[in-house]
Amino acid sequence: MTDPLVRVRGLSKWYPLPRRGLFRPREQLRALDGVSFDIRRGEVLGLVGESGSGKTTVGRTLMRLTEPTRGTIQFRGQDITHLPRRELRPVRRHMQLVFQDPYGSLNPRMSVERILSTPLLVHEPALSPRQRRRRVEEALDLVGLFPGAADRYPHEFSGGQRQRIGIARALIAGPELLVADEPVSALDVSVQAQVVNLLLDLRARLGLTVLFVAHDLAVVGTISDRVAVMYLGRIVELADTAALFTGPRHPYTEALFSAVPTIDPAARRRRILLQGDVPSPVSPPSGCTFRTRCPYAQSRCADEPPDLREVSPGHWKACVRDDLALAAPISAPILQPTQAD
Amino acid sequence: MSGTVADIPAASFPPARSTRAATRFLRHRLAVAGVVVVVLLIAACAIGPMLSPYGPLTIDLRRRFQAPLAGPHWLGSDQLGRDLLVRLLMAGRISLTVGFVAMGISTAVGVLVGLLAGFYRGWIGTALMRLVDAVLCFPSIFLLLTLAALVSPSLATITLIIALTAWMEVARVVQGQVIALRERDFAVAAEAIGASDGYIMLRELLPNIMAPIIVAATLNVARAILAESYISYLGYGIQPPTASWGNMLNNAQEYLESAPWLALLPGAVITLAVTSFNFIGDGLRDALDPRGDRSA
Amino acid sequence: MPLSETGDLLRVEGLTVRFGAVPAIEDVSFALRPGETLAIVGESSSGKSVTALALMRLLDPRACSVSGRALLRGPDGRETDLLALPERAMADLRGRALGMIFQEPMTSLNPVHTVGRQISESLIRHERLSPRAAAARAVDLLAEVGIPEPARRASAFPHQLSGGMRQRATIAIALACRPRILIADEPTTALDVTIQAQILDLLHRLQQETGMAVVFITHNLGVVAEIADRVVVMYAGQVVEDAPVAALLEHPAMPYTAGLMRSVPRLDAALHTGRRLLAIPGNVPDPRQRPAGCTFHPRCGHARPDPCLRARPALEWAAPDHRVRCARWQEIAA
After folding, report:
1. What topology is assigned to B18-54+67-292 in CATH?
2. What is the pLDDT of residue C236?
3. A193 to C162: CB separation less than 8 angstroms, yes or no
4. For strand C22-32 and strand C79-81, is the pairing parallel, antiparallel, or unpaired?
5. Is A144 in contact with A198 (CB distance < 8 Å)?
6. Is residue C115 part of a domain?
7. Domain ranges within chain B, ordered by starting residue
8. Residue C134 lies in a domain
9. How many CB atoms lie within 10 A of CB B282?
10. Is C217 within 8 Å of C48 (Cβ atoms)?
11. Helices first, then strands: H and E counts in chain B
12. Which of A247, B39, C82, C91 shows its CA 20 to 30 Å from the CA of B71?
């Protein structure tokens, strides 16, 4: 088996909060608390969680846009955790980011050509202006925009089109890893499907490795090979997509699935309503952080934070209870001929 | 591909941001009046003295203290019989030059300090902003006078002194904006691409904060003109016989009762120029306010 | 026909809102029965929120022109046209007969007053309760909307509550005077799914208890399927389909509705990861540049030059309870 493209071990990001009293210890907001995972070459790893789960921080930290507090990040076999900025620059070429907000992520004062040229100016300074222009037009074509778009400004485009421009910017220098941070959640439903399709096409065409961060389970299931579920800065479950959707093993995953409203009347089912809110990441509960909302919690759950352990091949979970029969949103296919691929 | 987007007719787009800003500016009547006054003032100062039969230093002791409209000198003459109109216009050249050059220097310094302080928020930023606070602590008029008393007054030194007491506001505005914009996704995107700090500051961030900079710079012209008047009025500024609006006022003090026009006219011109620049600044602020842009 | 005969609680007819020359919504009509949940579903610039704001008379009359009628049947059976009511009478109705909640709870909560005070204010004003009674009632209401420790939370400021708790508080405010209609504009869009599930559950429960009717505005078809009795689909400022929820989800007659349903990713897509979604091509039209003919024709696989480009299709009855705005719905269904 080849090495993974990304290997993250024990990644933590704690934000110190302002002191509330002279003699009080400084409190820490644990945005990310000991996260470990691999991203295999050529796969799409989905990362789902609710707000405050730390899923966005994972993407930003692994790209070194946010400095990790603890842990290591390996990318293409190289430890980049403490690489100085100058040495990070050539690495950046191989990892790119697509943003959630199609409005804020494009500089309103720059033409699309300027926006798309920036990565080329940084990473391929030898290109002539004509070659650059050609690359810009190729990138626009790749994401389904017309070449004339290069001369326009971001405000002249709709949300979906802007998101295509953002994807073109991420891809123009030919990265291996794409971190897509909620790339479709700000878009209209009908446009969202177009952008999901575009990402699927690009991934197949360019052999991209993708970390797909989202809160929408259905979108994540459509696009990801494996899915990691996060809660309060930790991964609570990680499995192949089909395995996770047909047989979740963590109570939080079960509740998350059960909360998704669906238009499919056959899939309408008994809803597991979680009580209360996500606890504060400043003072998370002891032991398992989900235990305060978990319908299956026992007294021992308060003792130790459960490890993320492999419960069946490729299926990892952080929960001590192995005796649970959890409800799945969809049933496993009964010898269904494979239609995909 | 099903998602391919057809060409969009250009006509379906809203007019560009700059046109809309211009439209909003033109609706601001006082600001437009300010522009007209400033343009007229500059033109008059540039051309006027050449058309007049009198020189600014031409002394005519036969016609001392001629009142305005009461003789050949349209706006009257001073204690040496010098033509007041020509002197006002020549003084305008000096005062407006001081205003614009001081604005240029102070804006450049302010932008630089603000960019660096906002971008490098570690000890560099803290040190720079403490410096800004320290300079702001002194009442600017004392600072001006202290500095002016220390150096030998000339056009260049006076301009520099005024500029050095006026850059802090720009620095503050820029620093605040940079801190806010740095967190925006497009700045993060540039960082993720691997762009250099200089590129991010100058190419990505600076164009997005031009609006407040322009507004602050316009108001700085007004302030610099006023500052020059203070210093020269108190005798530390532009030295006679070169005329500036400030030292004309100084000169007029002795004759306030006998020849009040000597004080009133320079005072009126200063007020006119300063309020005009202030109105322009207000107009620009409204016109460039992004909240007026729906699609921004 | 008078409302007393049709049994409708609210009937909107020919509602049109223009911002200058730009039509935000055109000729919107629908009816709401007592106790019913009507979902208005649409994408951005479909006009769904403008419809709600127009009904509540919350649009700035200097910025837009509103025409049409919105007839509300009072408890005494009398009809009032909300759009023709004087501002004072409308303000009175707004707290009492009509409640409204928004997507972002902070927009409707006043940051400088405690939650309890904001609830009791409306009770004092509309129900003429004494301050003491109103405060006690406010705590009851907070308990009713599922806020733990209601007595303590009543003295909390909005920023001290989580997003879900804030939305519960705005629901408590909207329901303080027991309105007969609650207008909810994307009330769960800003919330996480597990919190969304709690709020939907709460709304459902409150509706069962109070018998109020709900107009629920959303872009999420999944939410529609969970809560609605009847669905109005809007596209580019017009009602394009109006049907009971089961009929709409099983047999959508308008190609846009069908396309929207197909383009929504479903959980079972996880079984064949990597399969493309059935997207609707193109973009939602800019309100300033809506296409001639059927507004959906540039994105519609069933569009034909004749009749789709010729004229705006009318809203036709496809079934006794099912309206559709498509010139070719019969051919497409066949």
Report:
1. MetI-like fold (1.10.3720)
2. 92
3. no
4. unpaired
5. yes
6. yes
7. 18-54+67-292
8. yes
9. 17
10. yes
11. 12, 0
12. B39
Domain limits, chain A: 109-171
**Residue from A330, A261, A260 nearest C226 by CA:** A261
User: Which residues does chain B have within 8 Å of residue A89's beta carbon, measured at their own beta carbons?
Assistant: 194
Separation between Cα atoms, residue A48 and residue B151, nearest integer Å: 67
Tokens coding B11: 């006509």
Question: Do the domain assignments include residue C159?
Answer: yes
Per the CB < 8 A criterion, the answer to whether B275 and B282 are in contact is no
Query: Coil, strand, or helix at residue A123?
Result: helix
Whether B12 sits inside 8 A of C281 (CB atoms) is: no
**What is the bridge-based pairing of β-strands A78-79 and A309-312?**
unpaired
B neighbour chains, 3+ CB pairs within 8 Å: A, C
pLDDT average, residue stretch C190-206: 89
Nearest CA in chain B to A119: B193
pLDDT tens sequence across B205-251: 998 898 889 889 988 988 898 888 888 888 888 887 788 888 888 88
- Number of domains forming the structure of chain C: 1
Determine the Cα–Cα distance for residues A222 and A204; give it in Å rounded to an integer: 14
**Nearest-angstrom CA–CA distance, C188 and C223:** 9
Instruction: Convert the pLDDT of each residue in C220-263 to its tens digit.
Output: 999 999 999 999 999 999 999 999 999 999 999 999 999 999 99
Q: Identify the CA nearest to C274 among candidates A213, A341, A337, A339.
A: A341
For chain C, what's the residue count? 334
Q: What is the ipTM of this complex?
A: 0.87
The CA distance from B131 to B167, in Å, is 12
Between CA C82 and CA C90 the distance in angstroms is 7
C-alpha closest to that of B217 among B285, B270, B268, B150: B285
Task: Sheet containing A78-79: give its strands across.
Answer: A28-39, A6-16, A70-75, A78-79
Inform me whether the C-beta atom of residue A109 falls under 8 Å from chain B C-beta atoms. yes
Say if C129 falls within a structural domain.
Answer: yes
A212 contact residues in C (CB cutoff 8 A) = none
Six-digit token pair at B179? 């801190």
The CA distance from A148 to A27, in Å, is 52
Give the closest of C281, C283, C288 to B2, CB-based. C281
C-alpha closest to that of C47 among C228, C219, C180, C302: C219
Please tell me the total number of residues recorded for chain A in this structure: 341
C-alpha dist (Å) from residue A133 to A144, A165, B66: 17, 15, 70
Tens of pLDDT, residue by residue over A22-46, are 777 778 888 999 999 999 999 999 9
Q: Across the beta sheet with C98-101, what order do the strands follow? A: C98-101, C181-185, C213-218, C37-41, C230-235, C238-244, C322-324, C316-319
